[in-house]
Design brief:
Length: 259
């Protein structure tokens, strides 16, 4: 079972992973109303398909009028063979770095595999192909799971700008979502590290800070040591949003539940 982004994010939020505030919309008027209450937003097509950003299905909007215009253009689009009938209007975030995190079923070990990379916001397969060390991998013993200490060991040596402890905490919580939901794949891409310094743009919650706010996304995909674009993006959650220079939504989670 694949979950679209708006349905998956509440699963992450329930696990204490921060997600941006957002509202679903089925009409341009509803999108405008959501932006009116949220401020600068990203308007995102909700379809069970990947590469939504490349298809034009994810657009930044500074105000309600721009959100209405974006919704008019996105609704009715066909992405991955699916007609866009619903949108997620989500507060925008200032992002310093984009990270990647996932927990999935590993066909080699017949158990869980945790993946992490500092090259989020792009196809993780491309990152791994360019640099074999770009993606960290850890296969925890399913009998013991993954705690923050184990996650910190996975991150050892990476320059995370002082956010290593927070990132480790999120990885442990993401593993908990995978385990408790009997999922095939739970993924966050891009997972933002928030920008610091003077910016007037609205900043959404980062997954690297804990929060009980509702919001998350999941998508199912065939198990694979490194998730394929089809499996990872079956729910379309991980498509890259617009660049941070124009505003970007925070974490795009994907989760897939076992059938």
């Amino acid at each position: 079972m694949d979950f679209e982004e708006h349905a998956a994010k509440p699963l992450l939020a329930a696990a204490g992973i921060a997600v941006p505030r957002g509202e679903t919309a089925a009409t341009p008027g509803e999108a405008a109303a959501a932006a009116e209450s949220l401020g600068p937003v990203v308007v995102k097509a909700q379809v069970p398909a990947g590469k939504r950003g490349k298809a034009g299905g994810i657009r930044a909007a500074d105000d309600a009028a721009a959100a209405r215009s974006a919704a008019e253009e996105i609704l009715g689009m066909t992405i991955g063979g699916h007609t866009v009938e619903r949108l997620l209007v989500e507060e925008r975030a200032d992002i310093a770095r984009e990270l990647y995190a996932a927990v999935l079923n590993d066909t080699a070990s017949k158990g869980p595999l945790v993946l992490f990379s500092t090259l989020g916001g792009m196809d993780i397969e491309e990152a791994a192909a360019r640099d074999a060390n770009a993606v960290r991998r850890h296969a925890p013993d399913i009998r013991h799971g993954l705690d923050a200490a184990g996650a910190e060991a996975l991150l050892e040596g990476l320059d995370l700008g002082g956010a290593g402890g927070a990132v480790a905490d999120v990885l442990a919580r993401l593993y908990g979502v995978w385990r408790s939901r009997d999922a095939e794949l739970v993924e966050i891409n891009p997972s933002p590290s928030p920008a610091t310094g003077g910016s007037s743009r609205s900043t959404a919650s980062s997954p690297w800070t804990t929060s009980r706010r509702p919001g998350t996304k999941t998508s199912s995909a065939p198990a694979s040591p490194t998730p394929s674009p089809t499996s990872r993006r079956a729910a379309g959650t991980w498509a890259s949003p617009t660049s941070s220079s124009t505003g970007r939504s925070a974490s795009s989670p994907t989760a897939r539940a076992s059938r």
